[in-house]
Design a protein that fits this description.
This protein is mainly β. It contains two helices and 19 strands. The N and C termini lie far apart (about 75 Å).
Length: about 280
């Protein structure tokens, strides 16, 4: 093939590709709303499939006074479970969690979302240039006074090339901005463990007030059943916000030291996340 013919062929493929992308029905990438008990939800997608990666999201709108849960639901509740085993052309997924809030009622404290939440999902494709079927089975807790476990399947078929709607792009971009950022090492809060009366260790987290942190959450291994940290009365002289968490929910008869932990700090403007290792009190 001569250079001129090869050049013409490449240009033709490029024009054909752009033309296909422009004529595809972009509404197909905002999935249909699925009615759930006291809520509705749908799948969205955006990105460039030819890169091998796309960004999807599960958007949930909840009825007034109903809520759903974060990955750590607190004293009670059902954390969301996302099963992608039925998907096609999907090599891996990473579910991202927007910063949650704390709810307190007569049944205790829980962590999650009211009104509306969008869970961003980073998706690695098995192969670029192939059709993708986003097949998602979910289990959610949707709760008010009573918690309703909800199981539902969502599907969204994506061609090798597509143009997402501006609405889908806006929703998913905004959702990723609500995901807590990693804390810069120089700005990490002070985390220490002390003993209280008795033998139960207490984790103390001290955050400079300038970070405008409204609440924090501490997670341990899956086999632990931790409560939620409580904020101490403010001491303006120290310019610190301080929370404490007694380690009551660790396995009996086993030392907790060396366990991998995660701290999430929910701020007024930004939220942060930090991993740390639980160390014994000095």
């Amino acid at each position: 093939m001569t250079k001129k013919i090869r050049s013409f062929a490449l240009c033709f493929v490029a024009v054909l590709t752009i033309g296909l992308a422009m004529t595809l029905p972009s509404q197909a990438f905002e999935g249909q709303w699925v009615e759930l008990p006291n809520a509705k939800a749908r799948l969205l997608a955006t990105g460039d499939p030819m890169s091998g990666h796309i960004l999807a999201g599960l958007e949930i709108e909840l009825d007034e006074d109903w809520k759903t849960y974060w990955r750590f639901p607190g004293d009670s509740g059902i954390p969301p479970n996302f099963d992608w085993s039925g998907a096609q052309n999907v090599a891996g997924t990473q579910l991202l969690f927007p910063a949650p809030q704390r709810f307190t009622d007569e049944y205790g404290q829980s962590v999650g979302y009211k009104h509306r939440v969008v869970f961003p999902i980073e998706i690695e494709l098995e192969g670029a240039g192939r059709s993708t079927n986003l097949e998602l089975d979910i289990v959610l807790g949707i709760c008010r006074e009573v918690c309703i476990p909800v199981m539902e399947r969502f599907s969204l078929k994506l061609p090798p090339i597509f143009v997402a709607t501006e609405a889908a792009k806006t929703i998913l971009n905004a959702a990723t901005e609500t995901v807590p950022m990693k804390v810069d090492e120089a700005q990490q809060p002070e985390i220490k463990v002390t003993e209280r009366v008795g033998t139960t260790p207490v984790v103390t987290v001290s955050v400079p007030t300038m970070f405008l942190i409204k609440d924090i959450f501490i997670e341990g291994p899956d086999t632990w059943f931790l409560s939620l940290p409580e904020k101490l009365p403010a001491n303006d002289a120290d310019q610190l916000d301080v929370w404490q968490l007694p380690l009551d929910g660790t396995p009996i008869g086993k030392e907790p030291w060396g366990a991998a932990m995660r701290l999430t700090m929910v701020g007024t403007n930004e939220s942060f996340e930090q991993e740390f290792v639980l160390t014994a009190p000095e």
